[in-house]
Design brief:
8 strands; four-stranded mixed beta sheet; globular; 2,3-Dihydroxybiphenyl 1,2-Dioxygenase, domain 1; 2 domains; about 140 residues; alpha/beta
Length: about 140
């Protein structure tokens, strides 16, 4: 029986890759490991690894292509993306210092005995980012 191995990648349509890097690179400390232009889709792509997964930032080029259409219609949106982190208080300080708007300035209790905090969608191109720290998270979380 087929099985899902991991999230790979999480594609985020953005108006500007450079603007998105404010939260993802400057705030979260993720590094861009590659980028390219995909002519068939009229899109620039930047890759930001997170463990065995990665974010894929998709910026439309011009007025055509599926990403441009998605951004124009906004028919469906991602509610939130959860990132498991270490040292949540330290990361929140780092994000604040980088000018990233936070919903939670301090960790608070979350599901399964975890600590959580959220990055405001205004700082992450309209995507709510859930940060979670827990030594008890399992593959089933």
């Amino acid at each position: 029986m087929p099985r899902i191995i991991k999230i790979h990648p999480i594609g985020l349509a953005v108006e500007s890759i450079e603007q998105a890097l404010g939260a993802f690179a400057d705030g979260l400390g993720l590094s861009v490991t590659g980028g390219e232009y995909v002519a068939a889709d009229a899109v620039r792509v930047a890759f930001l690894p997170v463990g065995q997964s990665r974010f894929e930032l998709l910026e439309p080029v011009g007025d055509i292509g599926p990403v441009q259409k998605f951004l124009a219609n906004r028919v469906q949106v991602v509610h939130h993306i959860c990132l498991e982190v270490e040292d949540l208080p330290g990361l929140l300080s780092q994000l604040k210092a980088a000018g990233v708007e936070l919903i939670d300035s301090k960790p608070r209790p979350g599901a399964h005995g975890s600590l959580v905090a959220f990055i405001h969608p205004k700082s992450a191109n309209g995507v709510l980012i859930d940060l979670v720290e827990s030594s008890t998270l399992s593959d089933g979380y």
